[in-house]
Write a structure and sequence with these properties.
- This protein is α/β, with parallel strands linked by helices.
- It is built from eight helices and eleven strands.
- It has a five-stranded parallel beta sheet with strand order 2-1-3-4-5, with helices on both faces. A four-stranded antiparallel beta sheet has the order 6-7-8-9, covered by helices on one side. Strands 10-11 form a two-stranded antiparallel sheet.
- It is elongated, with a radius of gyration of 20 Å.
Length: about 240
């Protein structure tokens, strides 16, 4: 997903930039209200239907122009960009005011990074309707991925996966038995800007395998040495 971060606190901004980029998201930052509004307006003007969803993370207290004003200006102009508002003001009145100005969600500081990530993923899912003909549920053996909720289970047990692990799992499950090269996985899940010499694919395959296959009688993720990876259920025993 593309994330527009409007946050004037350099410590918080640095923490979020590093964390969100580590999860594979593209992040642009503005440090004041006027630059944040321009950033959001530019993103809305150049958005294409095939682009990844864009979410605006908007601090409430900003120099130059506060988050409420930015939100109100965008909504008045018909910009439907999902907005997650961050603030140290956590009263009911503040939350209601932010939502009435057009924010889609509201998160009070201090917050846990995992909660922020989950809220961003939920906003991104709502902003991107399912494509026609696209299966909403993928299943390989006893592994199931619900594409609407982006939740995975194996043998009925919920799997705790990050956004990048879910994207990798979705790719592998979209074509069971198909061999995906590291290069194809890298381009599909991380984008063409990623260094082709990185070992990030192997790292994430290991992480995914540890959560899906470790301790299971039937492993689903297979390595074809020198060629890549595939995910498939073995044929039933005869």
């Amino acid at each position: 997903m593309n994330i527009l971060l409007v946050e004037d606190d350099p410590r918080i901004a640095d923490f979020l930039l590093r964390g969100l980029r580590a999860e594979g998201h593209q992040v642009q930052r503005a440090a004041n209200g006027h630059d944040g509004l321009a950033l959001a307006q530019d993103a809305a003007r150049h958005a294409q239907p095939a682009d990844p969803p864009t979410v605006l993370v908007l601090d409430l207290m900003l120099p130059g122009m506060n988050g409420m004003e930015i939100c109100q200006t965008l909504r008045a102009a018909g910009v439907a960009l999902p907005i997650l508002m961050l603030t140290a003001l956590g009263s009911l009145e503040d939350r209601v005011a932010g939502l009435r100005m057009g924010a889609d969600d509201y998160l009070c500081k201090p917050f846990e990074f995992e909660e922020l990530l989950a809220r961003l993923e939920a906003l991104a899912r709502r902003a991107r309707p399912l494509q026609p003909g696209r299966l909403s549920r993928l299943q390989v053996g006893d592994l199931v991925l619900d594409r609407e909720s982006m939740k995975a289970t194996r043998a009925g047990q919920a799997l705790t996966l990050t956004a990048r692990e879910l994207a990798l799992l979705e790719l592998l499950m979209s074509s069971p038995g198909r061999l995906f090269s590291r290069e194809r996985i890298l381009a599909s899940v991380w984008g063409h800007s990623e260094d082709p010499l990185t070992n990030v694919v192997d790292v994430y395959i290991r992480r995914l395998r540890s959560k899906i296959d470790e301790g299971r009688e039937t492993p689903l993720i297979q390595t074809v040495r020198g060629l890549g990876y595939r995910l498939e259920a073995p044929p039933p025993a005869t």
